[in-house]
Specification:
mainly alpha; 87% helix; 127 residues
Length: 127
């Protein structure tokens, strides 16, 4: 239960940071391109890289690693988790799995999003 509270607290804080930063960027740089999300995703990838490298160097306790990486950065952006897992596969020499993971995540993710929109659109036209 303690681990869930640690992760949940980090997620709560990370989600708030994501919203505030995205809104700030959107108001400063209005555009059709979602710059806020782009910046959040890139920052999240940078921070998760720092956290995992630091945890290897100083033996960061599991609770702190879960709070920072899974909670805070995971709440900030799940793209960072995808990026970290891909880098881990590449570092481990698992290039085939990294390629499959990248391709499947992007293609199936886009397809699933499109499918979700389509299902709702179709069901709303039935009413």
């Amino acid at each position: 239960m303690k681990i869930l509270l640690v992760i949940g607290t980090g997620s709560f804080i990370g989600g708030i940071f994501r919203y505030l930063l995205s809104q700030l960027i959107h108001t400063k740089f209005p555009s059709s391109l979602p710059y806020g999300t782009l910046v959040v995703n890139i920052l999240g990838c940078f921070f998760i890289g720092l956290i995992f490298a630091l945890s290897e160097r100083i033996n960061l306790p599991q609770e702190w690693r879960l709070f920072l990486a899974t909670g805070l950065i995971g709440g900030f952006t799940t793209f960072s988790a995808f990026s970290n897992e891909t880098v881990t596969l590449i570092r481990d020499g698992q290039f085939w799995y990294a390629t499959v993971y990248i391709t499947a995540s992007v293609l199936f993710g886009l397809f699933a999003t499109f499918l979700g929109f389509t299902i709702i659109k179709l069901t709303s036209t039935l009413n």
